[in-house]
Amino acid sequence: NVVMMKYLLILLGFLLSTNAFHTNPSNHIRPIRTFGLSASSSTSKTETTPAVPTNKVKILKDAEAVGSEIRSIVSQAATEAIAQKGSFALAIPGGSILKMLAGPIPNKEEWTSKTMLVYVNHKCVKMDDGELATHAKASKLFLDSWEGVNAIIMDGTDDGQAEAASYENKIRQISDDVLPKCQETGLPIFDLSLIGVGDDGHIGSLYPNREEVLVDSNWVLPVAMKDPPSITLSLPLMKASKQVVVAACGVSDKYPKGKSEGMRRAIVEEQESLTSFPAVGLRDCALWVMDEAAASALGEEYNSQAE
Questions:
Q1: Could you identify which of 14, 57, 162, 164 might form a hypothetical disulfide with 222, taking C-beta atoms 3.0 to 4.6 angstroms apart as the criterion?
Q2: pLDDT reading at 14 higher than 50
C-alpha cells in the first residue's frame, strides 16, 4: 500500500508538471455571435485608426448650409454617374439626413427618373408606417417629388432575419449596369452613400459593442437590438461607394453644441475603436460635412478652415 501510494503521488506530480489537468482559458471564451454570419478578425475590435485628414472635413455655418451642401453633392454625383453609365445608385439612411434632403435640390428633373435608391438601414415594419418606416418618412419629405425614382423597399414584415435576406437578394438582383460590382471584393459600388452618426457612434444600425459591426461576409444584416428589429447594410457595403459622405448638424436647447462630442469621437479621438464607436470605421473613406456647432470640439486645426 505504501509503495502504491508513492507511485500515485509520483504520477500525480508528473501530470501536474505537464499541465495535463490545466484548463485552457480560451476554451471558456464565448465566441462572437453573428447570427450565422462571419465576423471580421478579432484584431479589428480594438484597433485604432488615424484621425480624419483636415481636408476631408467640411465645416459650414449652420444646419441650413449643411443641408444645401448635401443636396448639391447628391445632384452633382447623380449628374456625373448618369453621364458615365446612364444611371445613379444612391444609398441613404434614416434620421436627420432625410430632412437635409427635403429642401430644393438642383436639376432633379434631369436625374431622379434614372436614380436607384437603397436604404442604409430600416426598421422591420410596414412600409407605410408613418412613425417608424424610413421609406414612409422619405416619401413624405422628398421622394414623392423625385419623379421616377426606383426605391428598393423591404417586404414590410417584423422578421429581421427574413427581411435582411430578402433585401440583400433584392440588391444582388440589381443589374451591373446600374450597380456595378468590384472585381476584387464582389461588393456593389454605389455612386454615393450618405451616412449619419448617432451620439453613441452608430452608423446605419451598426451599434457600439455589438457583433454586427464586425461582420464582413454579408451585405445586409439583421439587428435584433430593439423591437421591432432593423436591417442594416454591413460596414464593407457602406464603404463600397465611389463617394461616402457623413453629415451632421443641428442644435437644440438640450444640445446647444449639437453633435460636437460625437464628431470629436468619430474624427479625432485616439482611443476609439470600431466596436467602441463604429463611426471610426469611416475615417479612411468619407467626406465629413458638418455645421460649426458639430465641429466645435475638433480643435483649431479643423476649425481654422471653416467656410
A1: 164
A2: no
